[in-house]
């Protein structure tokens, strides 16, 4: 690699890092502006909704449905309410009042192999591609295992978006290289599987 190519690669990496930092900051600001905070694991979502000090369960109206969530003080507009971004297992989801000032909501995901982009569909989304599970960071894995997990995660995301997997991308790249090396061959009617 020449010095120019090396410099261009470094500049591109720095620009990508700067965009990632800006995206994370924007995401954090959007999430901080919500009337609740939330965390998730692959199988569940936990939400903390601040309420006035002294609030008791009987003061609240809480609706947990397969695809809807609403919480608020009786006789007032909901603090949060709307369509959930994904379906939940209603029978396994719970809520409770903590220290008379927070409502803790635990939602069990129906699909426990999917990261949620947001809780309610009309709220800002997070970038689920940047999620690292709390109990197992990719950096904790050895090189070979980490590579396999990253490939599986990438392929899963690609499939969900209707894009080619890493193996399909490799085949396409190999075909492009072969075509470039053999311009005399006509591939216009070729069917590649």
Automatic annotation (TrEMBL):
<dbReference type="Pfam" id="PF04969">
    <property type="entry name" value="CS"/>
</dbReference>
<dbReference type="GO" id="GO:0051082">
    <property type="term" value="F:unfolded protein binding"/>
</dbReference>
<dbReference type="GO" id="GO:0006457">
    <property type="term" value="P:protein folding"/>
</dbReference>
<feature type="region of interest" description="Disordered">
    <location>
        <begin position="1"/>
        <end position="32"/>
    </location>
</feature>
<dbReference type="InterPro" id="IPR007052">
    <property type="entry name" value="CS_dom"/>
</dbReference>
<feature type="domain" description="CS">
    <location>
        <begin position="31"/>
        <end position="120"/>
    </location>
</feature>
<dbReference type="GO" id="GO:0005737">
    <property type="term" value="C:cytoplasm"/>
</dbReference>
<keyword id="KW-0963">Cytoplasm</keyword>
<protein>
    <recommendedName>
        <fullName>Nuclear movement protein nudC</fullName>
    </recommendedName>
</protein>
<feature type="compositionally biased region" description="Polar residues">
    <location>
        <begin position="1"/>
        <end position="10"/>
    </location>
</feature>
<feature type="compositionally biased region" description="Basic and acidic residues">
    <location>
        <begin position="12"/>
        <end position="29"/>
    </location>
</feature>
<dbReference type="InterPro" id="IPR037898">
    <property type="entry name" value="NudC_fam"/>
</dbReference>
<comment type="function">
    <text>Required for nuclear movement. May interact between microtubules and nuclei and/or may be involved in the generation of force used to move nuclei during interphase.</text>
</comment>
<dbReference type="InterPro" id="IPR008978">
    <property type="entry name" value="HSP20-like_chaperone"/>
</dbReference>
């Amino acid at each position: 690699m020449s010095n120019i190519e090396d410099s261009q690669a470094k500049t591109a990496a720095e620009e990508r890092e700067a965009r990632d930092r800006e995206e994370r900051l924007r995401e954090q600001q959007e999430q901080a502006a919500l009337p609740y905070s939330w965390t998730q694991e692959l199988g569940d979502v936990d939400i903390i909704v601040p309420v006035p000090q002294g609030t008791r369960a009987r003061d609240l109206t809480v609706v947990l449905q397969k695809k809807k969530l609403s919480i608020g003080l009786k006789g007032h507009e909901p603090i949060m309410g709307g369509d959930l971004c994904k379906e939940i297992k209603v029978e396994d989801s719970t809520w409770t009042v903590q220290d008379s000032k927070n409502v803790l909501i635990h939602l069990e995901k129906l699909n426990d192999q999917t990261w949620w982009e947001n809780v309610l569909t009309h709220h800002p989304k997070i970038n689920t591609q940047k999620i690292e599970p709390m109990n197992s960071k990719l950096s904790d894995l050895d090189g070979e295992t980490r590579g396999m997990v990253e490939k599986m995660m990438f392929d899963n995301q690609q499939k969900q978006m209707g894009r080619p997997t890493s193996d399909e991308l490799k085949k396409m790249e190999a075909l492009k290289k072969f075509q470039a090396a053999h311009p005399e061959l006509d591939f216009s009617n070729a069917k590649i599987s």
